[in-house]
Amino acid sequence: MIRQNKIRLLQRLSVRMVCLLLAGSMCGGMTGCSNKTGNPTETSDSTANIAGTEETESTEPTETETEPVYNEDGTKRAWVNSGDVRLNVRSEPNKDSTLMASFADRQEIKILDETPVDGYYKISGKDYKTGKIMEGYGHSDYISFEAPEPPQVKLDIPLYQQTDEKWGDMLLGSTQKTMYDIGCATCSLAMSETFLKGETVLPDELAERSHYTATGEIAWPKDYYWNYNKYNYLQFVYNKLHEGIPVLIGRTRANGSPHWVLITGYVGDGIELKAEDFLINDPLPYGRTNLKQYTDEYPKFKKMIYYCKDRSLVEGSEESIAASEAAAAAEAEAASKAAAEAEAASKAAAEAEAASKTAVQSESSGQ
Prior knowledge:
Elements: H1 4-21, E1 76-80, E2 87-90, E3 99-103, E4 108-117, E5 120-126, E6 133-139, E7 143-144, E8 153-154, H2 179-182, H3 184-197, H4 203-208, E9 224-227, H5 233-242, E10 247-252, E11 258-266, E12 278-281, H6 291-297, E13 300-307, H7 317-366
Antiparallel strand pairs: 1-4, 1-7, 2-3, 4-5, 5-6, 8-11, 9-13, 10-11, 10-13, 11-12
């Protein structure tokens, strides 16, 4: 696993070398589109699941450019730098010894012995599950002596609501349903597009150039991708927000009624990811501003949609993308079939009712 502090060091060295070779030139970078959802170990929707690391074979401590900071008791301050997994803390300095505890990413810890043994530091910190102070050995690849950047992020995204009188009465596709009725996905996508493109994209403008299925499902743009992993989705959303990418999420009520919102920010500590710490723009005007308020009302996970400009950067390869697209097509087909069956059942019920009335009238006329 490549650590964040190593990446920063390599980036600084690369920039210096380029600038020496090309004096006066500008040096720039580009953000990629990763899809790191972690190990699929089931957890509740309100707390992210973060699986423990598998230690590497490296025996060298993590490089750092910062001066060490010490606590009052003489121990060195450090932070867990394990990305979307937890740091395993062992009884001995090797990955085959007993697992004593797990420390969360970004968590502050103490270095009890500054000399690593086979790439492991003896450390102390709060166990992720119990909150108890535990001691043991953690691999240096997942430890940083540089304090992490603030975890909070808030993307400046306007709120578009499907009930707005400017577009609420607009019919979507051939459904005979209005934006007011089924426009949550359209409004969420318009909000995302407005932010990412840096120009206003209103829901009615987006709807005019979009295609809809017979049941009202919008055809998503080609540079948006699906994520169906419900088990570690908070970590995925957290990562995307820090890439500057909002995430659309669709969920349903217990009765199957769907609704989409746009996740726009995070205000927690970055250690234990909770739904209530994620900010949302809700196309319905019911005062929901965080993800927990939404998940309480719509408890069943459906899928997430996010923007990525380069298809090759979506983790999981072309096969995974094709599988997601096939799943989406199957979902749309199933919804269309269910709607057709419901329409047929409704028509049959109406015909039966009409026949019943005719029979009653016939009996009445015969008396």
